[in-house]
Prior knowledge:
The protein has 370 residues and is of the alpha/beta class. 44% of the residues lie in helices and 23% in strands. Helix 4 (145-170) packs across helix 5 (175-215).
Amino acid sequence: MFIKNIRLKNYRNYKELNLNIDKRFNVIYGDNAQGKTNILEAIYICSSGRSHRTSRDVELVNHESKSYYIKIDVEKKILNSEIEVQYENEGKKKLRINEIPLKKIGDLMGNLNTVLFSPEDLLIIKEGPSERRRFIDITISQLKPSYFYDLQQYMKILDQRNSLLKDIQNNRKLLDTLDVWNENIIKTGSRIMKTRKEFMDKLSKFAKTEHEKLTGGLETLNIRYNPSFPVNRFDDIKEIENDYRKSLERNKEKEIFKCTTLIGPQRDDYEIFLDQKSLKMYGSQGQQRTAVLSVKMAEIDIMKEETGEWPVLLLDDVLSELDSKRQEYLFENITGIQVFITCTEKSFFSAKASERADFFKVTKGVVIKE
Ligand SMILES: Nc1ncnc2c1ncn2[C@@H]1O[C@H](COP(=O)(O)OP(=O)(O)O)[C@@H](O)[C@H]1O
Ligand SMILES: [Mg+2]
């Protein structure tokens, strides 16, 4: 899929922006704090329904305004999408596709698929499990809206189950109702885990191939899904449910004591290995960067495989993070894909790369196409 036009109104430091996009390769450059990432962020919002930098829409509204507006036109093989996002302070975000209002954010998924690669992505390796879960959740949601609904549903059930656990501590009679909540959480939780497992296996397979290409076969990359309780077989949802049930039973008293749900998707994690060694613990900075690039490329491969279309690639400030060999590899491997790439210097690009690129210079929220 390809973005054809981007419109912004009172969004971040943009009073008004109307950009026609003609090419696949788009370089957005300029000094720091001029508004480069803001453009990628706006694209990302139209893709996933939220910013990758904040969950608070108020922050996105231009300081001198009370509302923001984003519109992105996407050209696709089957049906083009005109995605609109509108937000007024203290109100609710309104989404429209081809002028039809969406009831739920989940309905946005799949209309514009993006893969974002920014320096913060190293957090996938360095930070805790919640960062890692966020990464896969966003990707899977774009591919499978029902997963997004399951996650939302799961969080609601989890909240209610946690309050019940608190109440049980004061009133043991309520213990009988726990079983009902267990069945609810098992149903939704197992579906989430099954989807995660399938995704992780695919991600591991593709990332391994990408990593082989990137390192000339020197290193073998693997990704392993670590669910919060032991599961014998993932191919049969009933098996997951049975193991889930047993595990909840085993943890019952502990959960009541701690007033919180101790197992389930909210405690899932996964780990990346290079030659069977934990990348987080033993990988050098360079190895970690390369591995993240492999994982991102794998994400692109999966999206292409599942949807039949290339996603739009958003590269925020990552060129300087990669050595020239990796940069070259990246450019050679993204020819069919539309790319938006931000950087401070346009001199970064070789004459060859520049030939097929459009350059946009950003200065204080004003963009000039060269
Ligand atoms: N709500 C807002 N209203 C006005 N300006 C904003 C708002 N949010 C961020 N900015 C401005 O946007 C700029 C940062 O934009 P960003 O795209 O992150 O920069 P960069 O070009 O370095 O990627 C800063 O100048 C910041 O003050
Ligand atoms: Mg930036």
